[in-house]
Amino acid sequence: MTEFGINTPPETGAFLPRDRNWHPPAFTPTYKTSVVRAPQKALISFDNSLSEVTGPRFGHNLIGPNDNDLIINFARPGEMAIGQRIIVHGRVLDERGRPVPGVLVEYWQANAGGRYRHKKEGYQAALDPNFGGCGRSITAEDGSYWFRTVKPGAYPWPNGVNDWRPAHIHFSVFGSGFAQRLITQMYFEGDPMLKLCPIVNTIADPAAIEALVAPLDMSNTVPMDARAYKFDIILRGRRSTPFENRREGN
Ligand SMILES: [Fe+2]
């Protein structure tokens, strides 16, 4: 019996079942738009088929030389984005701690003033003509990725009467199979807006929130240039490594 009251056999597919107590529930009325987005019917679990076990493969030739440098990838020649210069780096791992190489990591964010470059953006903070706000990387053999950007600003949004998003960077990650696809957000250590955010507060487990907060990483700071933040991303675990004929431990 699942938490949704549906009798389904336990998942035995290639990937471990998703922990629905770790991820926020779909229906969270304090985050208003979740009300219309949430499924109306109970969920049903089923085993992974080929469409979940497999996924697109991304070669390194997909990535341009400045795709992981948001300070210059949209800037006019010789100019740079305005803001606090930071490096974001980490590793993409699965739930069992194994690196996931060759993964497309895409990221997008508001500029230093908290403004997105989007036609539906309504916040009055100024656009930065030299900041586009998006980039991408492919993870290396050890699952690592990194990019350079400016620290995004907090911004207000129409939810409650005075709700603000903490500074954050959005991430989309394609794993080795569609079952690992993850859309998430990274926050910054020490941000007082975190505990006030209705979206952050849809997450029940404080440890799960902590996993979204990137600590300041002075050991990877570039002196006189940019501070670093470390953000590891954990995808669903495979029961066995790809292309392996036996389960681990057998
Ligand atoms: Fe955002």
From TrEMBL:
It comes from the Bacteria. The keyword Acyltransferase does not apply. Keywords: Dioxygenase, Oxidoreductase. One of its GO terms (molecular function) is ferric iron binding. It holds the Pfam family PCDO_beta_N. Residues 88-116 form the Intradiol ring-cleavage dioxygenases domain. This is Protocatechuate 3,4-dioxygenase beta subunit. InterPro entries: Intradiol_dOase_C (IPR000627), Intradiol_dOase_core (IPR015889), Intradiol_RC_Dioxygenase (IPR050770), PCDO_beta_N (IPR024756), Protocat_dOase_b (IPR012785). PANTHER family: DIOXYGENASE, PUTATIVE (AFU_ORTHOLOGUE AFUA_2G02910)-RELATED, INTRADIOL RING-CLEAVAGE DIOXYGENASES DOMAIN-CONTAINING PROTEIN. Residues 1-21 are annotated as: Disordered. GO terms for biological process: 3,4-dihydroxybenzoate catabolic process. Belongs to the intradiol ring-cleavage dioxygenase family. The keyword Lipid biosynthesis does not apply.
